[in-house]
Amino acid sequence: MVMPSVLPVLTSWLMLRAGAAASIPQLISDASLFSKAVLVLLAGMSVYSWAVLWDRLRLYGRVRVQDARFLQAFRTAESASDVRMMAMQHPVSVLAKTALAGQKAAEQHTAEAVGVAARFELAQRAMDRAADEAVNQLERHVGFLATTGSVAPFIGLMGTVWGVMVSFVNIGAQGSATLVVVAPGIAEALIATIAGLAAAIPSVIGYNHCLGKLREIGHGAAQFTSEYVDRRLGARLS
């Protein structure tokens, strides 16, 4: 946390520099090479995090829509209808992939060959594996959001410490703690802090939101597995 006594110093220094193009880009341009590298790294992590969040949320929206359509088609279709045709019409649907795995397992292991109970269990296991695999694919790159949320504040803190260190070095070199000597390093430190928080906060929020969507999709797939086995296997083999 910045000491209250530092804020007036920084404000005064920024006002003094206002006539000399003391904007944020100018402050970044005047920063040390290390601070610039920290800011570039944080900017890259932030941009990639936003790209991942945008891509995943769009994909989850498509999955939700196609899951709902596939489930409606499955429930209204005849019990003997082929799931493959419905699955081809909903290529992104997790439920379609799950149902297709169940049908393939049921066709591969007939009741006459393995028994009713074994066929029931084999189909359910195949559907569980297919659902887990589909959810894992949806989870790709989401872990980067958690990494950014955890690491970005510390990277920003590293830039903050560097800026403060620069201020102390300037004080030692010039033998005074005047406004012109201290303020540039403090401003450089605060910019790094803000950049770290700006990268971390949206990433943490986005990560938690994506996890919530993935839980909903996984829970829906688990419920559908039970429904599929009851409607397509249990009802026909009882």
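^ that was protein a. below is b, sequence first then the tokens
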Amino acid sequence: MQRLLIANRGEIAVRILRACREAGISPIAVYSEADREALHVALADAAYPIGPAPATESYLRIENLLHAAQQAGADALHPGYGFLSENADFAQACAEAGITFVGPPAEVIRLLGDKIAAKKRMEAAGVPIVPGYNDDDQSNRRLRQEAKQIGTPLLIKAAAGGGGRGMRVVDAIEEFDTALDAARREALAAFGDDRVLLERYISRPRHIEFQIFGDTQGHVVHLFERECSIQRRHQKIIEESPSPILTPELRARMAQAAVQAGLAAGYVNAGTVEFLLEERPDGDHRFYFLEVNTRLQVEHPVTEAITNRDLVRLQFHIAAGEPLPFTQEQIAATGHAMEVRLYAENAAAGFLPSVGRLAQWIAPEGPGVRVDSGVERGSEVTPYYDPMLAKLIVHGATRAETLARMEQALQNFHVLGVQTNIPYLLAILRHPAFQTGQLSTRFLQEHFQSWKPPQAIPTEVLLALAAEAVTATEARSNLPAAALDGDPYTPWRAGNAWRNT
């Protein structure tokens, strides 16, 4: 690979761009009209416009992206995450255009993107799945019959879905028909496919995923787990590794199942096998296959921190047709890592996105602290895209050390111009249940349903105070030494022996 087009924006575009630099690959950016001045555009070797601000007219237009790749003479393309990263038609279009797609092949994306087909494949491979119904007969009569057999509570899920869309929990069988109609309508609108599957509803699961990598020679390995149970509206907020709940024996069993899942799918490149873990009082915890994300995950830096391996560089290596550069036995994990997602959002207004220009942007630094961001001071946060500003990743020897380091780093993260979720993240980290690792996907519903952010000092006041401080400092620096003689605290005063002038 000589020139790689990054078919994405924001922090993941910057992350891939920096990996390109280290690998000696020329990074090419694309941008919508809203991103003309974005950081990833400024850092790239070249940048090409792909359409108006709405993603449906730019970042989601396959023909626009391929045209940009051909204009740039790119021989490879990285989709990042989100947008078209799990779109089989996009991967296939790249292959047909002679452009290396940095990700799994189209047929693998297509198989694993269909939850019914994926569950059947995993069940045949011996990977544990949630009891339920995932056959082809989609008639209301058959689905109702299967729902009665499964019992309530049960979950209706869109076969082509994700992110909670096309999903309904049914607490009483009398509610099933109404919930089924609603799930189908939502699935059809979101994915163009109204097929559903049914599962026994696990009320307080933990969400644990395993990072896998496969090569074109048929080898698949795992790079340990990430706990992603802290979620709001089915979206992850905090991820960490190792999981506080996994014993070495349970970790080994889940890792083996993740590798089995990859082998069963013929997996190539980076992927994540997601499981639900059902905790039991007797300690005999059960895990079930949820899905495979056929792309690089937002939380991949957690794995990078504990394994000391660059997953994007590894993606390039696999995409070039090279075998995995290590065996399973050569992969080791050290310490504890955690990631939080910093969003521009207004917690007091139901976590609505907060838009505006970043008047100040000071990211924390220090041992074990990493910030992945696609913005800088002066960047514009627009209403067109996901409002994630950055990912803050910390690594320590233990979970306790990592928690302390994360709290300090968040306190040293200073953003002006938009509101952020920093107070919310700090409140979660400080909660006794989080501190002791008592997690589930219902954590925020159970502990933060009525949470209110502390009253913040208005941005206008902070900016006014900052401007006044700067003005006062500049004015003082222009005074002659004699004028400062009356100040008993000045280090320039002869009488205090700090400096004799």
